[in-house]
Every structure is written in structure tokens, then in C-alpha cells.
Amino acid sequence: MSFTGLRSIVLCLGLLAVPALAADMSTAPYLAAAPEKPTLLQMLASALKPKSAHPAVPEYRPRLRQAAAKRRPKASAPIVTEEPVASPTTVGAAVAAPAQLSEVELAAKGLELFNDASLSGGGKASCATCHFSTGHTNNKTYVGLDVVADGDPNGRNTPTLWGVGERAVFGWAGQAPTLEDSIRGIIVNRMKGPEPSPETLAALVAYVRTLNYPANWQVKEDGTPREDASAAVRRGYELYIGDGGCGTCHQLPSFDKKSKDDIGTGGKFKVPTLHAAASTAPYFHDGRTASLRDAVKLMWEFYAKKMETRLPTEAELDDLTAYVGAL
Ligand code: HEC
Ligand code: HEC
Q: Which of 162, 167, 161 is nearest to 255 (CA)?
């Protein structure tokens, strides 16, 4: 085996050893003397769970498996190749901890900026005006900073920012390829604010990346219903992946798709995620549909027409709505 290969393994083992190492160190004298200080393990845990930057919303469930899996290649590759050889006991703490903690600090700064109206022209609005401090939607439809009637063809309904770090493209039309582009566009175009500095953008991005979906007791991470989910939710799931055709576009487990589609709502729009849909009314880019059931009905009718398949019964619509509402 090559030296580099061996070194990677040693470094990986070093990283794997960190929790055990931290557990050992929690009994070390300097930590015992200051019990109110977080242990290394807690610090690492909070770095890996950035939601702790805003403890006001403790009910969020970290959907970290997916997010971490997506980030891992970027994050770990340079660590393994660029770090000098070090003993396996120090490398984990020295490499992983400071980088992760500064991400948390950045997110805390981002939360401040998220509530800062000076980002907009004339100090008229902050991000939280439309997304609340928690990042969820205020359920309104806007042109610029003006609230318009739901269904206005120029209007855009405020999306939730929960789970935004997992999305592939941003904006209803998928117009922004990255979170940085999306947020910069909103500040400059929608909020008519001054050009944001790279630091401001980085902090806002770090904050919104910490926003997770709420805990879900009916549906598992992979999108399948839990054993104790209601019968309606379980029947709804079968329709979702079966006759309703929903799963072909709103793909499990993220429930979105990178590509855009024209579903007859006035143009091509990205396939939005359906997570938390129960609380994101009104629906579609322009907020044309007030109830989730009507949104589900519109979608099935579109699919049935496109594929020349059958329409749902009223009971099936109830079941499918129960499943989508449980996501
Ligand atoms: C006037 C209300 C309003 C304000 C203020 C606002 N947003 Fe939004 N936000 C929206 C709307 C509406 C959209 C959808 C825009 C579109 O599709 O063109 C959106 C979209 C987004 C998206 C893309 C989400 C996705 O899933 O595609 C992000 C990220 C975002 N906003 C973050 C922010 C941040 C950060 C701020 C503060 C700098 C902010 N927003 C300020 C209403 C607002
Ligand atoms: C051909 C791909 C496609 C299929 C199949 C499809 N959808 Fe959609 N769906 C979309 C697109 C694109 C949008 C966004 C359109 C817009 O914003 O105007 C959307 C939007 C939605 C919304 C609104 C989400 C929100 O946040 O406002 C719901 C709910 C929804 N779909 C549910 C379903 C259900 C349930 C099914 C199965 C009956 C389904 N979709 C089938 C592409 C699809």
C-alpha cells in the first residue's frame, strides 16, 4: 500500500476516534473544574448540529444524514490530502473542531443579519419580515416587497427555508444555482438593498443552512411511512408512488427534483420539495391554491391528463393529502 493511502486510513481512524477521545477527556481535570463549559464531545456535537446556533427553535429535527452525506466529499477530501502527517490522537481535534465551530459562529452572525433591516433599501424589511427568524414562510405572496393577492401571476409565494441547504436549485423557477446567488439576488433585486459583502453572504448562507425540518413522527427519513403512521397516511403513500405518479417528479427522499417542469401553471418551475407542505399554504409559485387538498387534486389532474390515466376518487384524494400533509 502507498504511503498516502496508509496516511488517509490513519487520518480517518483518527477522526473516528474523536468521540472516544472526547469521552476520555471529559474526565480530564480542566474540564471537571469548569463543568458549565461544554465538553469536547458536546462542542463537536454542536458543530455537527449547527441548529444549536438558534436554540429558540429546539423542535427542529436535524436531517443531517442527507445533508452530511452531500457535504462530506467536499469537507473531508482536502483534510485528508492537505494536512501534514500528525499523530492520530491529535489530528481529529486539530483538524475538525476549529473549522466546524467557526461555521457555528458564522451562523450566529447570520441570524443577526437575518433580522437586520439595513440590508434593504430604506430599511423597509429584513429577511425575517417574510421568513420569520426561524426561516419558515409567512404564507404571503409578494411582488418585490409588496404583498399581492394569492394567485397574482407576477406574485411569488414565500417558500420555507427549512431544509434549504438540501435543495439543488433555488427560487420557484430554479433561477439561482447556489444559495449565495439566491440570497444576493433577493437583497439586491427584491429588497433593493446595497450590494452585500462576501462576509454578509457567507454568514446568511451559514445561518439558513442550519434550518432543518421539524421532527416527523409519521414518515421516515427515506419517505416511507412509519409502522405506527395512520392508515390514511400509509394508503396515501401507496398512491403517491403508484397511481398518483407524484414520486416521478417529487422524488423520495428529498421530494424535489432539480429539473423544471411545465405543469400548466404558467411556465416552467422547479419541482419543489413537499416537506412541511402542511404549513406552507398557499401553494405553487403564485400561491394560487389555498388548500393542500386542492393542490394535490390539481397535481393529480395534471398527471392523469399527461399520462392519460385515471382520476382519483374523493377518498383517495383524502388519503394522498394525508400523506403529503405528514411530510
Ligand atoms: C418580501 C419578502 C421577502 C424577504 C424580505 C426575503 N425573502 Fe426570501 N424569498 C421570498 C420569496 C417570495 C421567495 C421566492 C422567490 C422566487 O422564487 O423568485 C424567496 C426565496 C428565498 C430563498 C430560496 C428558497 C428556495 O427554496 O428556493 C432563499 C434562500 C431566501 N429567500 C432567503 C432570504 C434571505 C436570506 C433574505 C434576507 C436577506 C430573504 N430571503 C428576504 C420572500 C422574501
Ligand atoms: C411532472 C412533474 C410533477 C408531477 C408528476 C407532480 N408534480 Fe407536484 N409540482 C410540480 C411542479 C413543477 C410544481 C411547482 C409548480 C408551480 O410552482 O407553479 C409542483 C408543485 C406541487 C405542490 C405545491 C408545493 C408548494 O410548496 O407550493 C404540491 C403540493 C404538489 N406539487 C404535489 C404533488 C402531488 C401530490 C403529485 C401527485 C399527484 C404531484 N405533485 C405530481 C411537478 C410535478
A: 167
